[in-house]
Amino acid sequence: MNVTNHQFRLAARPVGMPKRSDWDYTEEAVREPSDGELLVKVLYISLDPAMRGWMNEGKSYIPPVGIGEVMRAGAVGRVLASKDATYAVGDHVYGTFGVQEYAVAKARSASKVDPRIAPLPVYLDTLGMPGMTAYFGLLDVGQPKAGEAVVVSGAAGAVGTVVGQIAKIEGCHVVGIAGGAEKCRYVVDDLGFDAAIDYKREDVKEALRKLCPRGVDVYFDNVGGDVLDAVLTQLARGARIVICGAISQYNNTDGVRGPKNYLSLLVNRASMKGMVVFDYAERYGDAAREMAGWMAAGRLKSREHIVEGLETFPDTLLKLFKGENIGKLVLKVAEV
Amino acid sequence: MNVTNHQFRLAARPVGMPKRSDWDYTEEAVREPSDGELLVKVLYISLDPAMRGWMNEGKSYIPPVGIGEVMRAGAVGRVLASKDATYAVGDHVYGTFGVQEYAVAKARSASKVDPRIAPLPVYLDTLGMPGMTAYFGLLDVGQPKAGEAVVVSGAAGAVGTVVGQIAKIEGCHVVGIAGGAEKCRYVVDDLGFDAAIDYKREDVKEALRKLCPRGVDVYFDNVGGDVLDAVLTQLARGARIVICGAISQYNNTDGVRGPKNYLSLLVNRASMKGMVVFDYAERYGDAAREMAGWMAAGRLKSREHIVEGLETFPDTLLKLFKGENIGKLVLKVAEV
């Protein structure tokens, strides 16, 4: 092949916010795929808050990335060589290809994506893991009913934007919580949320009291911390909290802070339930078809925040934790 | 009537552990019952951890006790005078009669109890609110299946003892968490729990790892704090946590501490759900009949920790928070 691959490999387990030296930027020759494998040229890499958790030691819903291993990431790419009958050269595929320019991957762990249906980055967004997370987390775990008040944090992020839009499709009163006026404007004006709360400038508890006077029926939590505690004070009887993530807590050096208002679950006969999107893998296809239909009908909008250049990975990832992205953060590695 | 009543009235909202001066001990003449009312001689008063919450200002599942009001408490007593056709003098009744010697109460808020079926204090215990709380919290919210690992904290208390015994009846592997060797011995040797963990001497996390090697399926939490955090590290996939109370946190002067390990809910697709027993009022009768059957068959044992003398109320209540009671704490006010 005589192709050189560059990649980011985990060098150290971060303490607090990840830094450049937590990865090694390495170079190696690309190997030929074996039987059942594909050689993929990586085009777009998904940058997700969950990646921070994968860098930590210890048991979670997925094993941590090992020291010296290529940093785990979902990505879309183009097949350069195939040793599997179901894939042809030129096919576009999604897989956990990692933070690198080329990947040799098992064909059965990849899936085809179609750039005629949606631009490739959308397969890392609404038609990919964030979209699936939003769809199943909201509908299966949160179980909103028409007319109920649905609140989502990280509202302008990849998952939050989809949660809010699906909740609107379901006939709910939707309030997003996000940091900054631009994000708040985006989810209300462009995505059709009923209202947004800028947690950096507003008292979330007081704002919710006004925006959801009968209490919050479903809260989809992507952030944890103070925002979770504020929403806990405003639950309606029988509220459902979906625990999807806790981005405000991932880089704490003194551990995760628990929700001090959790006894509101008791007072309000409410529940808090965790979800991991992988559990719904058998239903991804159905969800993607339904969401593609909503997208085609203009009812579900997708927005990607694309940054170019594999070598920018360490800095670009931090945009998530600094709240600098609107929509899905994607790293563009190559054009075609 | 010319009968003098003594009572404890809330004088101040406690900061931290309640103290004697948070109540006034008052004296007044008993008034005649009006139409639809009963005059009740209070015999046994239920002392419950929830009483601490009722002393705080602010919204909860029930309004707080007002300053100057008789301290709220469930109790059993004997009807001295009745202005309601369904009650006769001499009937024994349960009601929210308060911490006092005599109560004038609305007949429709009381219910008859039968000392021929069980001793009167049992109506404040297994056949009363603690028993109902355990029954519905475990069976309706926790939904244990035969063979699952059920863990209960406050295991030697009024609710915990019933939770563990019902879980055994349901065919579960039952581990109690309690403070001190005597309580641990009691729940294993006398009540038939499979094992107990003395949280004062043992590392709860390590002990659970050994006693529930496949993880905890149902956790019935009465205590919150460190014990809740330890159990969160040992959840099985799909675990259900019943939030019934948090006695370790009620007297904190710096607020409730949230469970820092709550993201284990995500990793394990687990849920945490609050419950308030009043929601099940329509089914109390059925539950009491089933539990009375279990008691008659020797499968469900009841133990009351009875302290005599209304005037001891402030000190006796503190036994709950000091962990000094085994079984249901009851204040005996009069013999008959």
CATH superfamily of the largest domain in chain A: NAD(P)-binding Rossmann-like Domain
Describe the biggest sheet of chain A? 7 strands, mixed
- Beta-strand percent range of chain A: 25-35%
Based on the coordinates given, report the CATH architecture of the largest domain in chain A. 3-Layer(aba) Sandwich
Q: Which fold does the CATH topology of the largest domain in chain A refer to? A: Rossmann fold
Q: Which regions of chain A have little confidence, pLDDT < 50, spanning 5+ residues?
A: none
**In the residues of chain A, how many domains can be counted?**
2
Instruction: Based on Cα principal axes, name the global outline of chain A.
Output: globular
Distance between the termini of chain A: 18 Å
Number of helices of chain A: 9
Q: Specify Rg of chain A, calculated over alpha carbons.
A: 20 Å
| Mean pLDDT rating of chain A | 97
Query: What's the multimeric state?
Result: homodimer
Identify the CATH class of the largest domain in chain A.
Alpha Beta
Helix content of chain A: 25-40%
Structural class of chain A: alpha/beta
